[in-house]
Design goal:
This protein is an alpha+beta fold. The protein has a domain of about 70 residues: Ribosomal protein L7/L12, C-terminal domain/Adaptor protein ClpS (Ribosomal Protein L30, Chain: A, 2-Layer Sandwich), CATH 3.30.1390. Helix content is about 40%, strand content about 20%. It is built from 3 helices and 3 strands, in the order βααβαβ. The protein has a 3-stranded antiparallel sheet. The longest helix has 17 residues. The mean pLDDT is about 90.
Length: about 100
């Protein structure tokens, strides 16, 4: 019998496809529609995204005038949670407000 190396000494390389370092980041965007009130958009920005009132108003105007506005940049899990929270609040309030995420 030939001598064998113990398993612990063997080198096993595994490619996971995940890069070490910083997690991927995602932009969360609000989209304009003809039904959601400006006050509700400001409320969502203050409550969900913790924006100061003045910043929330600026983002709301961007949504209104440009068709969309950037709410923030987050890790995927946080971005997905914020999108779901916005949709839940909007539906409860009777608004069709759309929120999405995209890679940064």
């Amino acid at each position: 019998m030939s001598p064998q190396k113990p398993f612990a000494e063997e080198s096993v390389l595994e490619e996971t496809g995940v890069e070490e370092g910083h997690p991927s980041m995602y932009k969360v965007l609000l989209h304009n529609d003809d039904y959601t009130s400006m006050d509700f958009v400001v409320h969502v920005l203050e409550r969900v995204f913790k924006k100061a009132h003045d910043e929330a108003v600026q983002i709301m105007w961007s949504v209104h005038l440009k068709g969309m506005g950037l709410c923030g940049v987050y890790t995927r899990e946080i971005a997905e949670t914020k999108v779901a929270t916005v949709h839940q609040l909007a539906r409860r309030s009777g608004f069709p407000l759309k929120c999405s995420l995209e890679p940064e």
